[in-house]
Batch of 4 targets.
Target 1
Amino acid sequence: MTKRNETIACSTAHRLATQAAIDISRAGGSAADSAIAAHAVICVAMPQAAGLGGDLMMIVASRDDAALAVTGSGRSAIVASPTNSVGRSITVPGLVSGWHSAHERWGLLDRQTILQPAIELARNGVTIDADLASAVSGQRRRFEALGDTGWSLLEKSQGDTWIQPELADLLEKLARDGFDHFYEGEVAAAIVAAARRHGSTLTVDDFAQHRATLAEPVRSSWSGGTLEVQPAPSQGIILSMASRWIDQNRALLEESPTIRDHLLVEATEAAFESRDDVIENGESLLSRALVVNESSADRRGGPRGYVHTAGVVVATADQVVSSLVSVFDDFGSCVFVPELGITLNNRGDGFTEKENSYRPGEYPVHTLAPAIVRTRDGVTLALATPGADGQVQTLLQVLSAMEFDGQDIQEAIDTPRWRSENGSLLIEAGHPAAADLESRGHTLIHQEYGDPIFGAVVAAGFGPHGLIVGADSRRGVVGRIG
C-alpha cells in the first residue's frame, strides 16, 4: 500500500484515540483509516459510550470529490419482538459494517495495522478513569437486573488496570479475517444467543442480511457555502431544517445578539416536530416550512435528554472525516456477550410514534448526526458532538457563533450554550442571552459552565491556511495537529 507522511488534525473523545489517529496517519493511513483506529480505541477505553455492539455514522469528504455518508446502523429483528422487552431494544449492531464500507472505499493500510492500537490496549490493559468508573456505578443495577454481572469491568474501580482478552481476540479476528466476519459464524451466533436470553427475536439471518449503506449526504445552503449532514435514518436532517430557516432569516438574527438565541431555540424546536417523519420523508423535509415564533417562547419542547456517544473527526491535506460511534444509553442495553467482551446497543429505544413507531425489520430514527460545512472562504470543516437530541442544537449554536460573531472554531466551541430539553431550556452560566431568553418566556434551568449535558464538540478540517482543529473542554475532548 502507498505510504504517505502528511500532517493530520484530529479531535476525539479520548486522548488515546487521538494518539492512535495520529500514529496511523504517520504510518501512511488515510483520514478514514485514522478514524477507524480512533473508533476502535474508544470501543476499548469508553465502552459506556461506544462499542462493537453499537453503531457508526460517518461522512467522508475529499478535497476534489463529493462527500459520501457511511450509515453503520442496524434494523430491529425481522420477527416482531414482545412489547416492553429489553431484547426488543437491541438492533443489529452496525459499527463494524461501517468500518467495512469505509475501509473498502478509502482505506490505505491493512486492517491489522489500523486495529493494532486498540488490540494492544485491550490486551495490555486500560486504566479505569473517573468517567468510566462513574458509568459503572450508575448502571450496575441494570446489569444486576439482567443477571449479566460476569463482566470483569464490574469488579474494577477508578485507577485499576482493566484487561479485555475477549475483546482483543475479537479485534484480532476482524483484523485477520475481515470486518464482514462480525456478521457470520461464531461471532453472530454469540450475539444472537445473548440477545435472545433477554427476549430478543434477532436471528443469524438478521445478521447475514445486514449491510452498511453508502450514500450522498443531505446538502443544504449555509452562509454562502454548504452544510452536509447524515441522511436518514439519522436525524441530521433536523439540523439542516433549522439552519436553513436561520440562513433564510439572517436579517432577524443580525438585529441583535440576544434575539438570535431565542430564534435558534424556536427554529430547533420547530424542526424537531418533524423527527418522526425523518425516515419516511428524508431530504424532502427541507421543503417543509417551519413555524417560528419570532418574539416569544412557544415552549414546544421536543428534544429529549440523553448525553451519550463519542465523536471522532479527522482531517488530512485531502480528506475530512466527521463521525460518531455509540451504543445509545450508557453500555447500551447492558446485555453482555461474554464470548466477545462487548455489550449490545439499545438503539431500538429510539422508536417513538407515528411513522417512527416500532416495526420489525426497520430502522428507528437515529440520534447520531455528524456534519461537514464547506464555507465560502474555502474551509472544509468536520463537526460532531455527543448528546443525542443535543447534537443538532449544539452544532447549530457553534455554526451560528462562527457565522454571526466571526468566531474561530475554538472560540465558538468555548462559548456558553443552551439545550432545549423536555420543554425547558438548560443554560450554561455566563450565557449573555440568559436574561433575554427568560424575558421571552423560556423556562431556564441554570447549569454550571462546562456541564457535560452541553455536549463535547470535536472539530477538524482544512482551509486556505492549513489544517484546523477544535476541542471541547466539557468532556475532556482532545484535539491535536500531529
Note: The chain has a mean pLDDT of 93.
Target 2
Amino acid sequence: MIDTNNPIPLHLQLRSVIASDIKKGIYKDKIPSERDLMDRFSVSRTTVREAISHLVQEGVLEKVHGKGTFISQTPPVHEWLDSLNSLTDTVKRMGMRPGSKLLNSGIASEVNYISELLNTETVYTIERLRTADSAPIAIERHFYAKEIGLQLANYNLETTTIYDLLENNLGIDLIEAEQFISCKEVSAEDALHLDVPAGSSVLSLERLITDAKRKPIEYYISYFRPDMYVFRIKTKRNK
C-alpha cells in the first residue's frame, strides 16, 4: 500500500504497487481507471498519472486513446540506450529478479580482432547466461586484458555485477561505450541455453567500453531473445 510517511515519492510507491499487481496477475489485460486508482490509494490524479507514465516509459503499460491503459504485450525487459547500464540494473528496474549462470571463463582463443581492440596480446573471457525471474533472456560474453580478467575471476561471477566489480573493487572507471546492434543466427549451443529453436535469429549487441583516458577496458558481445528483450532510444529531430 501507499505510505505517506515513507520518504519515497508517492508516484514511485504507486508505480511499484501497480507493477507488483501486474506481476501477480491481479490485472490481466488492463489496469483500473485513473479514478479507480485515485480512490483505492487516496492519491491525486497527478500522482496516478506520474506512476502510469513511468510504467509506460518502461514498456510495462501501453495507453490506448479512448480505451484506457493496457498491460503491454511487448518483451518484458526494456533497455534504454541513452546511458551505460548493467543488465542486472536493467532487469531490476523492470521489477524482475536478475540471475546469472557462469558458462565459461579463462583465456580466450581465436579472438585476434578483439585483442587488437583491447590493445593486449592475451584476452580473458567471461561467458554467462543471464535470466530474469529465472527465464533465460541473454548470453553475455565479456572480454578483457588478461590482468583484468584474472582479477575478476577471484569473485563469484554468478552473484555479483561485473561493472560494480570493475568500478568499486578494481578502481576502473567506465566512461564511454560504442555499441552496435544487429540480428544474428544463434548457434546450437547458445540456442539450447536460451531455450529457443536452433538456427533462430536473436538480437546481437557488441560494445566497446573505454575509461576516462579512452583506454579500452571491455569488449562485450551478447545475444538476446527477441521475445524477451527490446532496446529503446529517444531522439529529437535536428533543425
Note: DSSP finds eight helices and ten strands in the chain.
Target 3
Amino acid sequence: MSISNETKQRAARVRLIAMDVDGVLTDGTLPLFEHDEGKFFYARDGLGISVGRNAGLKFAIITGRQCAAVVKRVEELRIDHLVQAATNKAKALADVCAAEGIDVTEAAFIGDDWNDLPGMEVAGLSACPADAPPEIRARVDIVLKHNGGRGAVREMVETVLEAQGGWEQAAERWLEGLRNREAQDGGIVCRQ
C-alpha cells in the first residue's frame, strides 16, 4: 500500500488503534441465534493485534452493538478498551484516549460506514476496509487493501508499526517472546 509522507508521519504518532466490529473486525455478517448473535473473527487480525500490543500499541473496540462474542474476543486478545452500545463514537474515542492519557490525534480509528465517521473524523488517522462504501472510502486517510474481517485490522497494525520502525522487527520480537513462553511451559500435550 502506498501512503503519503504526511500520512506516514501521522501513523508514526499513533499510540492507540480503535476500531468498529461489524464490517471491520468481522465481515459484517450478523449470525443471529436464539439468545445472542455470533461473530466470525479472522485469526490473522488477532495475531496483528497481539504483535501490536507487544510493540506497545493500545487497542480499543468501539461498537454500536452489544454482543457476548465481542466480549469473549476482547478478553482473548487482551484488548485494552471495549465500548459497546456506543451512540457517539467521537465521544467514546475521546473518553478512551483520556483514560490512556493521550491526545485523540495520537489515535487511529478504523470504521466501515456512516456511524463510524464521527470517530474517524476526530482521530489523528482514519482508515476503512477495502469493501467500505465509496462515500466512506472518499473520507478517510487510508483505504486498506483488505476487506473487513479478512485482514484489514492486521494491515492497519502493519502500516502503523512500519511507520514506527518496522512491522517485521515487531513481529520478530513477538515471536521471540512466544518462543520464550513455550520453552517455559511446554504447551499443551494431547495423548490418546
Note: The chain has one domain: 5-181.
Target 4
Amino acid sequence: MQRSRTSEKSVKRLVLIDDHPIMRHGLAQLVRAEDGLDVVGEAGSAREGLEVVGRLKPDLAVIDLTLPDKNGLELVKDIRALHPTTQCLVLSMHDETLYGERALRAGARGYVMKEEAADNLVTAIHKVISGGLYISESLNARMLEQVTGSSRSKATGMDALTDRELEILALIGKGVATKVIAAQLSISARTVEAHRAHIKEKLSMTDGSALVRYAVQWVENQTKV
C-alpha cells in the first residue's frame, strides 16, 4: 500500500488549456502514454484555466496562446503570480520568433510549436518539470545573440510591440470593435485608441484603414497551420 502511494506521488500532474477539444484530446493521449505523466484537468478558456489550476494545483500547465477570452501570455502571468508552484509551458501554432521570448518574459519555462508537438512536447514537459528551460535551437541562438550584443539593435516593427499591443492588433485583425476590445480587456476605449496609435507609429502607418488591413492579413497568416 505504501508503495502505491509513493508511485502516485511520483506522477507529475498536468492541466491542458486550449480552446479546441480535439486538440486537448490528442494532447492528453500523447501525455498519458508517457510513464510518470498524467492529465488531471482541461480548460477551454483563460478563465476556466485559472480556475482549474487554482483548484487542482498541477505541476505544469500547458497553455495555448489563442484563447477566446484572454491572450495566453496574460494567463501565464496570472498563473505565475497566483500559483507560483505551477510551471507553464506554451504550446502554440504562432511563430516562436515573435512569441517565444514574450512567453519566457511572461513566466513560461518553455515554448513548443504545435506542428512539432508529436516530436517535442513530451521532451519539453520533462525538461520544464525538472526545472529546466525548453526552447528550440534557433530561438536559443537568437537569444544568445541578443545577450552577447551581436544583434543589439533597437526593436522595430512587430518586435517593437508590447504584449498588450500585440493582443490588440490580433483583436483588430479579427474584426473586434474598439468598445468590445475595451470590455474584453477591462480597459477604457480611450486606452484602446492610444494603443492603436502606438501600434501605427511602431509599424510606420498613418492610416487607420491600413492598420486594419495589415492586422487582418497578419491574423490570417498566423492561423495558417
Note: The beta strands are 12-17, 37-43, 60-63, 87-92, 111-113.
